[in-house]
Amino acid sequence: MTKNKAVMELLLCSALWSIAGIFMKLIPWSGFAIAGVRSVLAGTVMGLFMLLRHTPFVLCRRSVLGGIALCATLTLFSVANKLTTAANAIVLQFTAPIWIMLLSALLFHASFRRADVIAVALTFGGIALFFADGLGTGNTAGNLIALGAGLTFGCYYVSLGDSGEDIRMSSVLIGHALTFVAGLPFLLLTPTPLTLQTACSLGILGVFQLGVPYVLLAHASGWCSPLVCSLLGAVEPLLNPVWVAIFDGEVPGLLALAGALVVIVTITLWCIYNGKNEEKPT
What is the tens place of the pLDDT at every residue in 2-20? Predict the structure, then answer.
């Protein structure tokens, strides 16, 4: 495998992730129920991949903590998509790198640089625009939940640290299993009408939007630097609102669009800055 092929796989991964909003909007279920079924299908894809690769399942402190954090992320993101715009949900989850930095400073006493402080200030300034927009559209609760998904996604990466591929994949399986358990009561106790459109949307979400991308990420991330992975991940928040606007007609407010621009540009430039500094000889 070449680096160029790995980059293409990561681009495809981000593009597939970006279709979450449009298909979640097509399913008349609660966010918890959608998350549960999506994870059953995605977990099956990852399990089959691990089986074919002979990757052992590892049950340890890191894989369990990562699984819990991933469960929270998947569930919160799905619920947020039902309460706010798809654009708001994905961009607010995209704040995960900022939460990783803050958690590293809090838990591991990592030091802040001037660029880090500026990045945090600008990111939270962009977030404030989302909530200013939400006050007029009733999206405040959804925005808060989406922001929580960004925090838990940051916890997911921090909990795994530099663990091996077997632990990372095991944490994904644990996360999907826990997400299904969390969604099960809502599958049983809330209306879940199953039409052809709903079944197809769930299948696409579980297999192609969540299952296959995690396989691509696991396969390609070893060939690309964290900087490249971070930058290619920006494709998701850029494409997600485009699909929803085209196929569902949902367009975020002007303040939310301004906030999205601030958040995406700030985090992308910050990742570039970090990558350049990491590449400097010591």
Answer: 667 877 888 898 889 989 9
